[in-house]
Amino acid sequence: MTPVLALKSVSKSYGRVQALQKVSFDVPAGRVCALLGANGAGKSTLIRTLLGLETPDSGTTHVLGMDSRTHGLEIRRRVGYMPEKPALYDWMTVAETGWFTAGFYPSGFQNVYEQYVRHFQLDPRQKIKHLSKGTRAKVALSLALAHKPELLILDEPTSGLDPLVRREFLESMVDVAAEGRSVLLSSHQVSEVERVADMVVILLGGELICIDSLDELKSSTREIVATLPDMGTEPPPVPGQVLAHAQFGHEHVWLARGIAEEQLAERWGLPEGSAFHVQTPSLEDILLALLREYRRSPGVRPATSEAIRS
After folding, report:
1. How many angstroms separate the most distant Cα atoms in the chain?
2. Which phi-psi region, left, alpha or beta, contains residue 130 (left: φ > 0; alpha: ψ -120 to 50)?
3. Could you report the per-residue pLDDT of 176-202, keeping only the tens digit for each?
4. What does pTM read for this prediction?
């Protein structure tokens, strides 16, 4: 089956700033894929490149089987795209916004848009300029969904929303995936995204650091915290694949994959007077640990898995 998104060795720079560096991954159909990373990681550049709004310096991007370089307009027609700051006309009402946008899509758009307006309990008579940020986001999502796209791309769609609206918004993505459609979701709300995503892509400094299913990433990753007798004591190597390591006084914290607690108990030769415990990290814990490691050793890029392919 053709993936809904396919990137191969995509690089993009702006002057001396390298926004993307040889990024390659696929997203199979029917997934909610979370695109994560710190500010400046390259997430928005990647999205704009997929949509044909930016041209990569090298590499290729395909969306729904179409080359982003040559079919950008058709991609944008078929994809539901919602940027962080949706372009809505303040002087229009909610209803007029749907009527105006329907002119760019095949028949049936407005009827579906009106269904979403009712679903989100929007007042069709209210002007856009009088709407809260959360309500504007619901209008933008209704527009993005009204032509029943195979793929929905959301770039920080919940920024600034209150927690309840943000949760309702993100949980609606599960409904989209249940219909067999796909979602690429870029967001800083990692704990909320964790509730709805089934696939994770992490970018740091424009490079792909991780691509994995969320379940596999969490089930195979452990956080190990060891307290040593003093700051000068060197801990033994941790078994498995170490993704990140940080020292806080005489406490050491590792993020590692491919280990079992019995390996640590049986083979890990901590010095006398030491103690350790192992826990399963949240997605946010994993992202923060990788970000710390990246900032500490910018020349090292710990890849946590091979890319998932359909």
Report:
1. 74
2. alpha
3. 887 888 999 998 888 888 888 999 999
4. 0.85
